[in-house]
Amino acid sequence: MKIDFILPDIGEGIIECELVDWHIQEGMQIVEDQSVADVMTDKALVEITSMYTGRISKLYYAKGEIAKVHQPLFEIEVASATPSQEQATDELAATDAASQSQTQNWAGEQQAESVNRASDSAPCPLLAQSGKAIASPAVRRLARECNIELSQVAGSGKNGRVTKEDLSAAPSQTQTAASHSLNLVPPSDKTAASMSGDRSEPIKGIRAVMAKQMTQAVQQIPHFTYMEELDVTLLDALRIELKAEFAAHGAKLSMLPFFMKALALTLPHFPLLNSRVNETCSELTYLSEINIGMAADTPLGLLVPNVKGVQHLSLLELSLEINRLATAAREGKLAPNEMKGGTITLSNIGALGGTVATPIINQPEVAIAALGRMQTLPRFNADGLVEARKIIQVSWSGDHRIIDGATMARFCNHWKAYLENPLTMLTQLR
């Protein structure tokens, strides 16, 4: 019997998505819960898994084409309507019902988040299990969020299927060395490949979102840029000294956590820099949380996840979170909420070799900084002697409707003082 696999809702208001890659081909035998495709929305990359076991008889889209939500994605030939398929049908119905409730994320994610909150302290058995675990997409996502190795959890469902309840108290894996820094990804071979003649291609996915947001920001916000030089000689020495200890905890310590913590100490003195303006510029909202965005150049385009509540995190916790978000950004697996709610942004353009820039404000934020590369340059010391110093240029862009140059200069000098005298900053860290 041949069955059409219907592409389910993958987010509120999303009616189509780009088929980024097939993990299957026609004639291939697959099993239930096997990954079959990656699709890209304007928010994130989403993995699609099969709800059936059988042989793929038809793919309705080619790689790069736009797939329609609620339309057949592929056709699969199954032996019969087994109980397992009935269960899958039930899950699809549940997914559709959840999407109709106007959720922000796709239905599976919502189920996972709901279960996650409800089962933080419940017990869960942990048994050895070989091979690929059987679980729904929602359970797989919950396992990833909890750092649980799914194949090690005994499934209590039919045919050993792992349920949400099975995950409830499974011990998390030790934080792995998710220690990729915010170093930007070098150009791929495809990007560097030479092209002969002109060619056109549609702007879609993440790049389409970037085009829309950047255009809107420039049109609505009068930008001004303020540039300053930071002497980070002492800060870099401190980073090198702490590097091994952070590595022992699975964190790669870059300069970015220091820049973020210095911001978290500075912004309470300049709340205007951590605020939002309404569309008519008639009202300011001062934000209590400090969620710092980190611009990341990925194979998918520019992504700006943000670290939530930087003021509450230790330097180690902040490093681990930066590493995790950078990895997720490169893999296109950021959750929608990880790119929402930012209050101010740092862009590490220096990772590509630049020194100064004129960054565009990440609306609805009111300020953004571009960090240049660190250079060893000659500078005069207090005795008038020339010595080698570690120098970084920083370029701040501000919303000139509410921020004037003097405020930006005072703010930057306050922040700079922490970075140039890191012991002063460390005495105030929590």
UniProtKB/TrEMBL annotation:
- Chain ranges of the Peripheral subunit-binding (PSBD) domain: 134-171
Q: Which cofactor does it need?
A: (R)-lipoate
* EC annotation from Swiss-Prot or TrEMBL: 2.3.1.-
Residue stretches of biased makeup (Low complexity):
94-104, 168-181
Q: Which Pfam families match?
A: 2-oxoacid_dh, Biotin_lipoyl, E3_binding
Keyword rRNA-binding belongs to the record: no
InterPro entries attached to this UniProt entry:
2-oxoacid_DH_actylTfrase (IPR001078), 2-oxoacid_DH_E2_comp (IPR050743), Biotin_lipoyl (IPR000089), CAT-like_dom_sf (IPR023213), E3-bd_dom_sf (IPR036625), PSBD (IPR004167), Single_hybrid_motif (IPR011053)
- Residues of the Lipoyl-binding domain: 2-77
Q: Write down the SUPFAM superfamilies for this protein, in alphabetical order.
A: CoA-dependent acyltransferases, Peripheral subunit-binding domain of 2-oxo acid dehydrogenase complex, Single hybrid motif
Give the keywords, sorted. Answer: Acyltransferase, Lipoyl, Transferase
Give the residue ranges for region: Disordered. Answer: 85-118, 157-199
Polar residues bias located where? Answer: 105-118
Keyword Transferase found: yes
Family, as annotated = Belongs to the 2-oxoacid dehydrogenase family.
The subunit structure is: Forms a 24-polypeptide structural core with octahedral symmetry.
Database matches in PANTHER family: DIHYDROLIPOAMIDE ACETYLTRANSFERASE COMPONENT OF PYRUVATE DEHYDROGENASE COMPLEX (PTHR43178), LIPOAMIDE ACYLTRANSFERASE COMPONENT OF BRANCHED-CHAIN ALPHA-KETO ACID DEHYDROGENASE COMPLEX, MITOCHONDRIAL (PTHR43178:SF5)
Q: Can you say what this protein is called?
A: Dihydrolipoamide acetyltransferase component of pyruvate dehydrogenase complex
Q: Which organism is it from?
A: Marinomonas maritima
